[in-house]
Amino acid sequence: MTKILKPYSRLPYSHALNFKELSLLALALLISDSVLTTMSVSESLSPCISDIETVIPTTPLVSFFERLQETALNTFGETNFDPKLYVDLSLKFDLPTTEDAFVKLPKSANGSLSAEDLKGFIEKYFESAGNDMVYCEPVDFVPEPEGFLPKVKNPEVRAWALEVHALWKNLSRKVSDQVQKRPELHSVLPLPEPVMIPGSRFREIYYWDSYWVIRGLLASKMYETAKGIVTNLIYFIEEYGYVLNGGRAYYTNRSQPPLLSAMIYEIYNKTGDMQLVKKSLPALLKEYCFWNSDIHKVIIQDSQSCNHTLNRYYAMWNKPRPEATTKDKKFASKISNVSEKQQFYRELASAAESGWDFSSRWMRNPSDFTTLATTTILPVDLNTFILKMELDIAFFAKVTGDNSTATSFIEASQSRLNAIKSVFWNEEVGQWLDYWLNDSTCKGCQTWEACNQKQSVFASNFIPLWVESFYSDTSLVDKVMKSFQGSGLLCAYGIATSLMNSGEQWDFPNGWAPLQHMIVEGLARSGSKEARSVAEDIAMRWIRTNYVAYKKTGKMHEKYNVEKCGEFGGGGKYVPQTGFGWSNGVVLAFLEEFGWPQDQMIDC
């Protein structure tokens, strides 16, 4: 039976618990080997998300936008059609008035509309997509910050870095005052602080993008802007119980890779802002509860009969994604069984929650998109991010004087570290491998089987190196580095996402800034001179292709083709985008870490 949560109702973890209750709830969820104990303590404080069929329904406005989107496709055709455009519009009049006018549009005998009539209707009744996010001058932007990238000695590279730095002005937005006054007319959600958007069709804040945006902002000395982004993400937790995928009403059914604690950690390291840490800790405890709720957690018993709790992506949605309704229905058109179709839609949304939308990584058969099985996979990277969250919460609790919470989260991180080693680590290949579940219902405890480790090579197989628990182990770093060097992922201009050219954007030959950064940073921080040398080499390759593409196109790009210098990436379900928040952030972070020698060429 599907459990329906009211639209915009706060999830169970988002109601007003005090800090002590939040700590107790989080601590209850740490008792990973005793499901009954976890449930009883949790439920005494706040009901858990326990029904595997949980769905958060959409709003009437978004439902109407979906109808408009489908009508637009049928009327205007597929050429240059972007379904997201229609759910990003704003109403000029209230919804009943707009719906009534829509219904009264003249139709032909077969029920179709003329392109002229639909275009006129949209112009009369809607504000353009993006009008609800207005330009906002960043309060802490200066053209050349004091102490900016001191290791960059090459004047040509430095001039380009300042141009990338200046792009923060282009990407800065705040939610329009009109949204605050009439939120029912907009799909964009109100936020307290300005944001940095990724760029192009991505006109709103996104969760995991924000980590690399913040890393770039810190290199640009824009500390207040970085803190504002964190404040917005905390606001989502306070309103919904978790950080949304992005700042739109149609993103309330899923989150994205949980990197909020990592953002706060980096800001604290730069600024020492203790008030930010104190403000953030209750929100992080709520987010931790969300990711450890029943829909996300899975118990695996290893060969020594030890139970390990790990986590998966699981969107609270079983319909076409509103921002891609027309595309999702087309994908699902050959599935006749209703429940199978609903499950496919959940797999689509869960892949979007992973940030890797889409990739052969989530498919049972990479040649058949309908075999997406995201909820049946325990991902290496997600569990690495949650390990980082546990370590960060322990650190924040310690610096704020909450030794009990700090101790409990240190213990939790140790349990997860053991789980990652037991379930994901493959000694033979020297990589951490995603793990296939026997089924997606995850009722009870599943027994670990070696054959369930996904043998394909993905950049995510090396993401644990990003966390100190792994990069501080010298012998492990050496083994993983050699495996990485022989994996085939390292190409002339960066790290490929996978070895399979499936046509999906999170596959070969595309390289993505976040993946470059996590692997490079882990190698660089390991203390191994050889690993740091490898890291610097990868960073230089990535910087070079970003630079050449920028000089050719005048833009920073969402993704790059790691086989060809200066070529942006392709594939996937939408045209390549520019802007681009996380690409800008990673270039600046790399230049801050490694610099660029005066006599080193930057061209291909």
Keyword list:
604 residues, mainly alpha, three-stranded antiparallel β-sheet, three-stranded mixed β-sheet, Glyco_hydro_37, alpha,alpha-trehalase activity, Glyco_hydro_37_CS, Trehalase, hydrolase
Largest sheet: 3 strands, antiparallel
Give me the secondary-structure category: mainly alpha
- How much of the residues is beta strand, in percent? 5-15%
Global morphology: globular
Assembly state: single chain
Keywords: Glycosidase, Hydrolase
GO biological process, one term: trehalose catabolic process
Pfam families: Trehalase
EC number: 3.2.1.28
Describe the structure.
This protein is mostly helical and 604 residues long. The chain contains 21 helices and 16 strands. The strands form seven sheets. A three-stranded antiparallel beta sheet has the order 3-4-5. A three-stranded mixed beta sheet has the order 7-6-12. A hairpin with a 2-residue loop joins strand 13 and strand 14. Helix 15 runs antiparallel to helix 16. The longest helix is centred in the C-terminal third of the chain and has 25 residues. It is globular. The termini are far apart. About 5% of the residues have low confidence. One of its GO terms (biological process) is trehalose catabolic process. One of its GO terms (molecular function) is alpha,alpha-trehalase activity. Keywords: Glycosidase, Hydrolase. It holds the Pfam family Trehalase. It is an enzyme of class 3 (hydrolase).
